[in-house]
Amino acid sequence: METPSMAQQKALLQLEGITKVFETEEVETHALSDVHFAVRPGEWVSIVGPSGSGKTTLLALLGLLDTASKGTYLLDGRSVLDLSPAERALVRNQHIGFIFQSFNLIGDLSVYENVELPLTYRGMPAEERRQRVERALERVGMGHRARHMPGQLSGGQQQRVAVARAVAGDPLILLADEPTGNLDSKNGEQVMQLLAELHKGGATLIMVTHDPNQARLGTRMVSLFDGRVVQDERLR
Amino acid sequence: MDTFLQDARFALRLLRKSPAFTVAAVLTLALGIGANTAIFSVVNGVLLRPLPYKAPEQLVFIQEGTPSFPSMSVSIPNFMDWRAGQKTFTDLAAFRTGAFDLTGVDIPERLGTRLVSASLLPLLGVNPALGRNFLPEEDVLGGPPVVMLSHGFWVRRFGQDRNILGRSLTLNGVPHTVVGVLPEGFQFYTAQDIWVPLARTESRFFEQRGNHPGMYVVGRLKPGMTLEQARADLEAIGQRLQEAYPDSNSKVLPRLSMLHERLVRDLRPSLLALMAAVAFVLLIAAINVVNLLLARGTARQRELVIRASLGAGRGRLIRQMLVESALLALVGGGFGLVLALWGVDVLAASRPEGIPTTATFAVDGKVLGFTLVLSLGVGVLLGILPALRASQVSLVETLKDTGAGAARFRGRARDALVVAEVALALTLLVGAGLLTRTFVQLKGLDLGFKPENLLTLRMSAPESRFPGAESLRAFIEQSRERLGSMPGVRAATYSNGMPIIGFSDTSFRISGRPPPEKGEAPQSVMFITAPNYFEAMGIPLLEGRGFLPTDRVGSTPVIVVDEVLAKRFFPGQSALGQKINTQGDRDFEIVGVARHLLAYGPGEPEPAPFQFYLPFLQVPDEFVTQVGRSLTLAVRGDGNADALVPRVREEFKAMDPDQALSGLASMDSVVENSLGDRRFVLGLVGLFAVLALVLSTIGIYSVMSYTVALRTREMGIRMALGAREMDVVRLVVGYGVRLALMGVVIGAVAAGILTRLLDSLVQGVGTTDPLTFGGTAVVLAGVAVLASWVPARRAVKVDPAQTLRAE
Ligand SMILES: Nc1ncnc2c1ncn2[C@@H]1O[C@H](COP(=O)(O)OP(=O)(O)OP(=O)(O)O)[C@@H](O)[C@H]1O
Ligand SMILES: [Mg+2]
Asked: Domain MacB-like periplasmic core spans what residues (chain B) (predicted)?
């Protein structure tokens, strides 16, 4: 349960009454119903729940990949639900880092170029981009692989590059959807360790996972069931 | 700029990575863009490039006309009065075509001659390459006889001898002094061997205001003057001349148009049709490439979604897709330019006579610009669909493992592209079909005479060598008899003109009927012929007789009219025994009615709709020399007419070594040439239609293959559930045919509208000819069946069990 002192601290992101309804031909699916949820800087939130409970949907909303049917979403104190697609792209680019289950590196770009991509979209000068990319790759231990193409890397290495890409732009918040779902346990552990280091360095993390052990690495665990938050537990 | 370079580099990398796709796309685009560039170079050369004269935008073409004969040449006295009275031109110049016999040399020759006023060269801003232009005092009746040589003739006949100036050439028996040589590459209407002053025209043309001797006028507008002001100026003079000379000038007014406009007037519809045809080819090519782009499939889409999730905005993604497709199109355009360079050479080599000599086909800056703009345009066109797709996909896809989100949109887009492709191909094929039908029909038309194995040649028997009418008549008749009795020759005949090659026309009226209004007299083609003309030419006589040896000076003047004249003026009765009044108020009795000839060539308009024939031997003495100055002979052999050429030359040499001959050509080739413009357009439109058919076949085939590949699973499941091979094939083919039929229907509607633009090129068949439309639809439906049948066969080869296991 939340303590009063924490509630007074300013939330980095805040969802209120978020509802997401998918309307298909025959049925309406309430993927999320009336979700209230706030994350403060430096938190590491694990989101858990059975399949179909709305975890991915929630993450998509948080990452501005999708829009809610109802409710408000404040990111860094600013309402982001009624932004135009172009403004949403800008927010994603500057404030959000994604780590995907399937890595989602672009196969035709080198490791270096993949990490550089969001910085390019930001219009950052070439020299600053170079420094940032190199620093990010060093951070995940992939500096020596900068010229490789993603196809030449193992799954774990690819995911580390993806992490580098997510953090290179110093986002407000990192979002990860089952970041180890496509990895064997050893590689998965390495990636989790990387996330732990990032968290120690001050990063704010929201991570969907099926693995209870991984979930316990976070500072807080939010359980979803049928599109509702059924438990919100502070771990540390 | 930075990101633009990144986009470009990435695009290049993609192209290098899938060479099969790149080669297919680049070749397809090269074909489309190359064909467009080649045709545009023709359009540019003919319609857009300014004439190769000084300030060509000031040059005006002037002729005369009446309400019923809008296109007449200019009478010399009228021209003189315009020139004296006009205020809107810096100057006027007149020109006509003639033929002068060059004699007193080893091989006498009949020279193509341009007769011009001395003002023409300065007006065009052209200086002779050697020597000087005609002087004003040489440009008056009775002035000293002088001649300028065309560069080609100077090279051919005198080996570029620079001492030619001052030499004397005997032309039509009169010594002419060479005063100049025209520049190389100078073109003004058809190329001629020599130029002489207009004053070398027979003097009667300077006196008879009612005579319009094939002369035309160009003028240079004073700076700031418009065509309208010039027209008002000359028409005012024309009105005054109408009042002053009601006999000759009733209803006659000058007609002005810009020179360039006038030169290209007849070509415009053909060229626009070609541009349209070739644009269709490009559209089809572009559609094929879009298909290829879409078929590159989900991998690409996933990449775009990832980019979007990393913060690439919509504009950013669209720009990236556009950079990629523009790059593809530019590479295609580059190869297309190479194709076009070759194509332009081919086009230049096969240019028909109807294209003005001033037009050159070449790849110049404007053509390069066109290619660049076209390539970029195609690039944008290609990029639109993928870009749209990029901006429509759901970003949540990144969080899922499959990229199947937009499959339905892509499928529908592909279908639409096939439909569009079929519709475009159908429209083009219908156009080509209509032109082909027209051409075949024109080729099959009865000319009214038999052109087979007929050699024609021009000769003149000038006064200088045959003083007195009798000696001239005797020489001409002797020529006919000697040629006619050569072995292997069936008949020889002569006339002052020949169908298709050239002839004169004249006005007439029916004797005993009220004369028509001045300037409204009916015009007839007139042939003054040998007695055996009808038999020798194979012109059927429908009624009465042809000419007899007894139709001579002194006997009743006779005339043979054509069926059109007979029907128009003597409907429901026989024309025989009636009289025609022509040739300066003389009466001729109609003794025969002949089949109407396609005198102007198949499919050509007939400014003089009637035709009649007069016997040469009945021409009064005072006119014989004038007729004898230009005669055309026709010799019909047993076999190929060209084989007769050396023997005919020999025969003439034996008769008179000073006799100049020219224009030796088989009538078959003359008829062929008269269809040259049409063959040129038809050949190209046909080529493009075939190209369109091939490209759209490839398009349908690749889309069907792709669709079948996507549906392999479905096919396997269907077959596992008991579908027979036939059912699967029918499913696929049915799908392809449904798309094709949709395209056919849309294409037929579009073609029905667009072929109206071909109106001026299509004859003897309606622009909605059901045979052409039906045939084309069947061809395209057949192609669609084939193009979907092949992938369908492949689909049923799949082992259903295999398909199910590949979960
Ligand atoms: N595009 C969509 N259209 C319709 N329904 C959808 C769509 N996306 C998700 N849903 C539905 O919304 C609900 C939540 O889905 P979501 O993907 O968020 O579940 P999840 O918790 O991530 O499950 P998993 O653990 O299996 O990944 C499900 O019932 C799903 O069927
Ligand atoms: Mg999920």
From this structure: 22-236, 422-649
Best mutation site among A18, A19, A22 for ligand 1, i.e. most ligand atoms within 8 A of its Cβ? A22
Q: Is A120 in contact with B2 (Cβ distance < 8 A)?
A: yes
Domain assignment present for residue B714? The answer is: yes
Residue at a domain's end among B200, B225, B251: B251
Domain shared by B634 and B752, yes or no: no
Q: How far is CA B210 from CA A140, B504, B584, in A?
A: 101, 15, 11
Q: From chain B, pick out residues whose CB is under 8 angstroms from the CB of A122.
A: 311
The CATH architecture to which A4-234 belongs is: 3-Layer(aba) Sandwich (3.40)
3-state secondary structure string across B53-77:
CCCHHHEEEEEEECCCCCCECCCHH
Residues B468 and B617 occupy one common structural domain: yes
Domain residues for the domain of B796 are: 2-47+268-443+676-805
**Which atom of ligand 1 is the closest one to the Cα of A178?**
27
> pLDDT value at position B749?
92
Size of interface A-B (CB pairs under 8 A): 81
Inside any domain, residue B671: no
Are B236 and B319 members of one domain? no
The atom of ligand 1 lying closest to the CA of A227 is 14
With CB atoms and an 8 Å threshold, state whether A60 touches B399. yes
Instruction: Please give the model's pTM, rounded to 2 decimal places.
Output: 0.77
For residue B40, which of B283, B374, B269 has the smallest C-alpha distance? B374
Q: What is the pLDDT of residues B186-206, one digit of tens each?
A: 989 888 999 999 999 888 889
The ipTM of this complex is: 0.80
Instruction: Note the pLDDT tens digit of each residue in A164-187.
Output: 999 998 999 999 999 998 889 898
Check CB contact under 8 Å for B310 and A121.
Answer: yes
List Cβ neighbours of A46 (8 Å cut-off, separation of 6 or more): A207, A208, A209, A214, A215, A216, A217, A218, A220, A221, A222
Mean pLDDT, to the nearest integer, of A105-121? 89
How far, in Å, CA of B99 to CA of A134, rounded?
87
B195, B219, B251: which is the final residue of a domain? Answer: B251
Domain assignment present for residue B105? The answer is yes
Residues of B with CB under 8 A from a CB of A: 2-3, 6, 10, 13-14, 17, 299, 302-303, 306-316, 394-396, 398-401
**Is-contact A218 A44, C-beta < 8 A?**
yes
User: Do B15 and B88 fall into the same domain?
Assistant: no
